[in-house]
Amino acid sequence: MTNQPATSSALEVASDIEVDEQAYQSFQRSTQLQNIEYLSMSAERFQAGAGSTVNLSISPQFNAEDDRIIFRYDANVKISEVESDELFGEIKASLALTLIYQGGVPSDSVISHFGQTEGLELAAPYIREIAQNLAARIGFPSLILPLIHIPRGGVSASN
Length: 159
Known about the structure:
This protein is an alpha/beta fold. The protein has a single domain (7-149), classed as Roll (Bacterial Protein-export protein SecB), CATH 3.10.420. 24% of the residues lie in helices and 38% in strands. Helix 2 packs across helix 3 (118-137).
């Protein structure tokens, strides 16, 4: 068994949501981060070996209330072997990012765009930390998660 770093490919985040730029900027100005907290975490090793590939998926969801929005990010990391498609381990983690805002309730498109761009930027370091920590605890000490590419270039970005 070797402890070589597994290869990984970047996670591409699609944010092709059409958003009114003025409404989005107004939302940004009236928003504050209240809290980031872990909701759940688990790690399981299925067999001996290091695995050679790391796949990361992150699913954002949100719930808007009167003066706050709670984003939930569910992350899943699979450590596998490319040649045989064998799964060596899996790590799951969920966290909540709570924003408070003033003004009217923003549109779903504004909230979704934020959750897939700036919200994900806030959540990503926490996801990375817990995934690498849990991976080391179950015997994958050199786990390197892929980069997360978040689209840039304006409010209505697309890949």
